[in-house]
Amino acid sequence: MTPSNDTNSRSSVLQNYRALPLGILGRSIAVSGLVLLLLYAFLSKSHDSPFSDSFNLPFHLQWPADSSSTSVHNTTMESPTNISHIGFIVIGSLNSWRWRKAYIESWWRPNVTRGYVFLDKEPTQEFLPWPATSPPFQVNADITKLRVFPRIANPLQVRMFHSLLDMYRVGDKDLRWLIMCDDDSVMFVDNLVEVLGKYDHTKYQYIGGISECVKSNADFSFDMGFGGAGYAVSYPFAQAISTKLDDCIERYPYLWVSDHMAQSCFADLGIALSIEKGIHQIDLHGDISGFLSSHPQSPLLTLHHFDTIDPIFPKMDKFEAIRHLMKAAKVDQSRLAQQTICYQRKSNWSFSVSWGYSANIYENIIPRSILRKPLETFRPWERNARPPFFMFNTRWVSNNPCEAPHVFFFESIEHNPENGQVLTTYVRAAQRNLPPCSASGNHSADSISKIRVLSQAKTRKTAGVIECCDVDYKAETNSSDIKISVCSCKHRVKNALSIPISRIRVQQVPGILFTPFCPHSLSFRSMILPEHVTIRVQVPFNSRNPAWVSFDGKERKQLTAGDALVCSMAPWPVPTACQIDSANDFL
Ligand SMILES: *[C@@H]1O[C@H](CO)[C@@H](O)[C@H](O)[C@H]1NC(C)=O
Ligand SMILES: *[C@@H]1O[C@H](CO)[C@@H](O)[C@H](O)[C@H]1NC(C)=O
Ligand SMILES: *[C@@H]1O[C@H](CO)[C@@H](O)[C@H](O)[C@H]1NC(C)=O
Ligand SMILES: *[C@@H]1O[C@H](CO)[C@@H](O)[C@H](O)[C@H]1NC(C)=O
Ligand SMILES: *[C@@H]1O[C@H](CO)[C@@H](O)[C@H](O)[C@H]1NC(C)=O
Ligand SMILES: *[C@@H]1O[C@H](CO)[C@@H](O)[C@H](O)[C@H]1NC(C)=O
User: Which of 231, 237, 303, 512 is the least buried, fewest Cβ under 10 Å from its Cβ?
Assistant: First the structure.
C-alpha cells in the first residue's frame, strides 16, 4: 500500500478520515496470500489433471443461496441488437424541413440507419430530387378521414402521434424498436443500440425521457416520454398499438399534445414509461454548456430543441455546432459528454472533462459531488415558472475566483485506429478576468490555453462506471495533458508478470479484488468479486504435490491434497484516511 505521495498536513488527512465498508488493505493482504496459493495449486495439478485441457480454475466460488433468480433476457438463440433493428420515425413538416434537415443529417447514416421522415404533404419540386443524405420520406395518412376528426382539438399533434401507425403500416421487416423523434432531435445511434440492447424487445416497452423542467412535467405528466427527446417502443408493442391507435384518438380527441395522447394510450394498455437518463428534451433556453459539462454518467442518447438554445459551441452557428459535436461522436459515442474529474495537488486545481465537449479548470479542490451538479448557465423553459425550476441540482454561476471555472471547449480530435488512442483537444473559450483563488494558494490557471485529453476508443466506456484521469501540467507549453483510463488494474496487467498492488487504483466499490501474481498464463486476470462471496481455494484430491500458503509473506503453511483456504469478507470495517477521496489516494 502506498500512502499518498504528498506530504500533506496531518490535520487535512484527519479531516477526511472515513471508514470504508471493508479495508481494502486487509483484503489485499488476504488476496496476495491467496494468489500465491493459486499458483502453487495450479502448478501442482497441471501434469496429471484430467481437466488440464479445459479452462478449469482450481477454486470454487460459493454464491449465497438467495442470489438473484430474476429472469434474464433470453439472448441465447438471438443475435444482439444492432443498428438495423431500429426504425426511426422522424416527424417533420415540409415547411420546417428546409432548415431542420441539417439537424437530422448530422446523425443520419445513409443506407445504415433505417426509417423515414414523415411529412404533412408531398414534397414540392423545390425539395426534389430528394437527397440521399436525408432519410427517405413518407407522407402521413390523411387524418381528416378519421370519424373523430371534427372533435380533434389539435390536428397537427394527432398527425404526429399517428406517424407511429403510419410507420407500422409501411411494414418494414426485422425491426425490434421504433423510435419517435422530431425533426430537430439529434440521436446518438451507437449509444441507442447499446442501451436498447439491454431491454427485452420481445416484451412491451416504452422508453423515453421527461423534461428538465419541473413545470413542464407537472403540466403534462412525470410519466410521459417527451417526444422531441425521442421515445422508443418495442416492435411487439407497436404492433399492439397499431390496432388500438384510432380508438385511442377517439377516446382522447381533446388532448392538446401528441406525447400526452401517446402516454394516455400506452397507460390504457398497461404500459408505463421507463426513463433513460441520456434522453434529453432540453426544455431549456440560452447557454446549455453547464448542462452538457456535467452530464450524468449515462450514455448520451438524444438532444433536442436546437432551435431554441444558443449554439452549443461558441463562435459557431447551431448547425456547425452540432456537426462539430458529431466529430467526437463518430469516434467514441460511449464517452461523449461523460464527465471525468481529476485533481492536481501541486497547484490545488480541479479538472472536469466532459469528453468531446468541454473541459473546466477550477483553481480549488472541489469535491466530485459538487462538480457533478451542472452550472446553471441556462434558463428554464418558462420564464414565469416558480422555483425549483429543474429536475436536478444546479450550481450558481459565480464570480468567486475559487468557484468560477476556466472554460475550454472541444476543438479537435485525432484517432489512431491501430492502437485505439484518441487525442481530443480543448481550447480556452475566453479569459476568466478574475484574480487567482487565494484560499488555495494563488495558483492562477490563466496561462493555460489548451487541454489535451488522451483516451482509449478500443473499448466502449461501460455505462455508469466512472473513469479515472491523471493530469500532467506543462508550464512551458501552457497546456495540460489529461489521460483518461479505466479505473481498474486490468489494463496494467497486459504482459506483466507481477503487479505491484501499490499501483492499483481503487474505486470505492464494495467488493473483493482477486489478483494473480506471476500468473502461469496470461489469461489469469484480476477479478473483482461481490463482497458477499466466499472464495475457496482448494488443492485437488488427486494432486501429486502439496501447496503452500503464506500470509503477508510470513507464516508459511503447507496444504495437502483436499485442504482448502477459505476467504470471505471480515465483518469489521478497516478505516482508511484520504485527502481527496478513496478513488484518488488512501492510507
Ligand atoms: C430462448 O429462445 C429460444 C428461441 O427463441 C427458445 O426456444 C427458448 O425456449 C428460449 N428460452 C427461454 C429460457 O425462454
Ligand atoms: C444486425 O443483425 C441481423 C441479425 O439479427 C443481421 O442480419 C444484420 O446484418 C445485422 N446488421 C448489422 C448492421 O450488423
Ligand atoms: C445507398 O445504396 C444505394 C443502392 O444500394 C446506392 O445507390 C447509394 O449510392 C448508397 N448511398 C450511399 C450514401 O452510400
Ligand atoms: C492548497 O490549499 C490549501 C487550503 O485549502 C492550502 O493549505 C495548501 O497550502 C494549498 N497547497 C498549495 C500547494 O498551494
Ligand atoms: C494571495 O494573494 C493575495 C493578494 O495578492 C494575498 O493577499 C494572499 O495572502 C495570497 N495568498 C496566499 C495563500 O499566498
Ligand atoms: C504562456 O503564457 C504566458 C502568459 O499568458 C505567456 O507569457 C507565454 O509566452 C506563454 N508561453 C507559451 C510557450 O506560449
Answer: 237
